[in-house]
Amino acid sequence: MLGPDLLEGKVGLVTGAGTPYGIGRECVKKFAAAGAKAIYACDLNTSSISSLQEECKRAGYATIIEGRLLDVSNEEQTVAIVREITKIHGRFDFCIANAGFANYRNLNDTEMVHYDRQVNVMTRGVFLAIKYGSQAMMVTSDLKPQPGGTFVVTGSCAGFSGAYSDLPYAVAKTALHGMVSSGSAHLSSSNIRVNGVAPGFTKSSILTVSKDAENGEYKNDLDEDQLKENHMWFFERAGLLKSPEYFYNRLQDPSEIASVQLFLASDLSSCINGQMILADSGKTAAATGDACTGPIPPIKPLDLS
Ligand SMILES: NC(=O)c1ccc[n+]([C@@H]2O[C@H](COP(=O)([O-])OP(=O)(O)OC[C@H]3O[C@@H](n4cnc5c(N)ncnc54)[C@H](O)[C@@H]3O)[C@@H](O)[C@H]2O)c1
């Protein structure tokens, strides 16, 4: 079960997989390394999918990787993509509802159009994925005699704490906690699990592409190094660069989140259902950092003499 056959023969989709450096793209790579048969990488723009296909091919993965244009808040488009995948492959096994964006507006500057778009993409979009993806997971064929599947939605540390985002983003991501627990209950007689991963601060393209993504488009011609650099101002503002010796101030890599997505999508997590897993290196647990405790020294090694 562990290793390159973790997702052997499985077919599904990953949304928000279109940037050259992001959680969705890393998720596709991890799932391909785990032996998935076909992965549909969906986004508002698919121009980076060819480099993703090449990367996976170079790594020796046999997975079919297809790029598809999808606005996750659009019902017709969502139905069309899950129907297409299920018709072609005779199965639909996993759905990684990961698309999102984040703009930091204060309340004065937050208009209803901003609120509606965030909730539409990051909550309605996940609902649509669960509603229609679950129907596709119930389709059986010679290749898939038993119905079932797994959903992994991408929440956020902003669903756990109030100071990590603007207000509509927190609303959208917090709503996913209910979506995950309620979804797991409503799919409990269908052999379908629903879980989520809530990343903490993670290096990705999000701060670069969010302005366009909020308007339903994504045009990004920056390379990976530029994207990583574009995130540093925000990490500085968030205080992560001040005490880098603390584990909770780590700058997480998208592949670390993808590892959790793989775990939750696979049978390794068969006893986990209806949970939103916080993946923030302990940032939320540390809350005020060392403000109360004073500087936290490393533990002295055990005296072996
Ligand atoms: N990077 C972080 O620090 C962080 C922290 C917490 C949560 N998240 C969440 O992780 C997820 C992935 O983001 P990322 O950090 O990898 O950034 P990213 O920008 O690399 O990926 C997000 C992708 O979602 C796409 N997208 C936005 N709206 C869409 C829509 N309507 N339909 C289809 N695709 C759409 C964007 O075009 C982009 O490609 C998001 O849901 C985000 O909210 C990220």
CATH homologous superfamily assignment: NAD(P)-binding Rossmann-like Domain
Average predicted local confidence, pLDDT: 95
Q: What ligands are attached or bound here?
A: nicotinamide-adenine-dinucleotide
Report the strand count. 7
**What value does the Rg take, in angstroms?**
19 Å
In which range does the helix fraction lie? 25-40%
Low-confidence stretches: none
Strand content of the residues, in percent?
Answer: 5-15%
Order of helices and strands, N to C? EHEHEHEHEHEHHHHEH
* Main sheet makeup: 7 strands, parallel
Note the main attributes of this structure.
Rossmann fold, alpha/beta, 13% strand, binds nicotinamide-adenine-dinucleotide, 305 residues, 7-stranded parallel beta sheet, 7 strands
How would you characterize this protein structure?
It is a single chain. With 305 residues, this protein is of the alpha/beta class. The protein has one domain: 3-Layer(aba) Sandwich (Rossmann fold), CATH 3.40.50. Helix content is 39%, strand content 13%. Strands 3-2-1-4-5-6-7 form a seven-stranded parallel β-sheet, sandwiched between helices. β2, α2 and β3 form a beta-alpha-beta unit. α1 packs across α9, α3 runs parallel beside α4 and α4 packs parallel to α5. The longest helix has 26 residues. It is globular. The model has no long low-confidence stretch (mean pLDDT 95). The site of nicotinamide-adenine-dinucleotide has 32 residues, from α1 and α6.
